[in-house]
Specification:
This is Peptidoglycan-binding protein. The protein has 95 residues and is α+β, with helices and mostly antiparallel strands. The protein has one domain (8-90). The protein is built from four helices and two strands. It has helices at 8-19, 24-31, 41-54, 68-73, and strands spanning 76-79, 85-90. The radius of gyration is 13 Å and the shape is globular. The chain starts with 7 loop residues before the first helix and ends in a 5-residue tail after the last strand.
């Protein structure tokens, strides 16, 4: 697990690897070299897998875009103030 990053794509990829580690989405990221900070076809495929299998999106909602609806549905790993991961995940939009 990595430290907090200022690159939003790396943060997304790290989050998929951490909070969704046993999913097809994480496997796509791992199979394509891990968190590389680029929103390429592998990251798009990983987001599509999350949208379909973890978030229950249907039809055109499964677009591979890390847009507002996807961000709101995602579980994120938490970091301490110093940037170290706390090794737990939570959806900040749900109480």
């Amino acid at each position: 697990m990595s430290r907090a990053t200022t690159n939003p794509i790396t943060a997304l990829q790290d989050n998929i690897l951490t909070c969704y580690r046993d999913t097809a989405a994480a496997q796509v990221i791992r199979n394509n070299g891990g968190a590389d900070g680029k929103y390429g076809t592998a990251t798009e495929r990983a987001v599509r897998a999350l949208q379909e299998h973890q978030m229950g999106f249907k039809g055109s909602e499964i677009d591979g875009v890390h847009g507002l609806k996807t961000r709101k549905a995602m579980t994120w790993h938490l970091h301490a103030q110093a940037g170290y991961p706390l090794y737990r995940c939570k959806n900040p939009n749900q109480v």
